[in-house]
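FORM 7B: Structural annotation worksheet

SECTION A. Query
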Amino acid sequence: MGGTCRVKGVGDLIKPLPPCPDCWFVVVMPSVGISTPEAFKRYDIMGSPVHPDCERQEQAIRENDLAAMCTAAGNALEHCSGAVETAAICKQLNAQGAVTSLMTGSGAAVFGVFDDGQKAKQAQQALQAGYDQVYLARPVRGGARVLPRHAKKDHTPRREK
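SECTION B. Predicted structure
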């Protein structure tokens, strides 16, 4: 569908929303993955103390209020996912100025939301010292836009036949 949406059910109920407030995301892939089926099994047993306020988050998006959107955010699966690096990554993102940081969906990636592009770029650089996959992203109106990476030119001389 593209753009900012609220998803309910098992991902089958999709409600379009206005664009996300202007922000930057730093996404970090931990070195240890998560088994989604195991995470949901643990959730069924343990439950979670985290209960995102989806209604408030939707209202904050409609009001273009990034701080309120982040305050209402949460991931009920993060607590019981078994992710061993999430807390440390969130701590680093917050120390770099993230408005909030959370595990994505069922993991294992972790993201920080930044209200300042320079802080986000600095956070990306800082986290690249400890993680191989650290990405800088920004929401765009109307859905995702994929930009090609600029491959480094190979300056190796070619042999003639």
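SECTION C. Observations
Residues 152-161 have pLDDT under 50 and may be disordered. Helices lie at 36-46, 54-62, 66-72, 86-95, 117-128.

SECTION D. Sign-off
Analyst initials: ____
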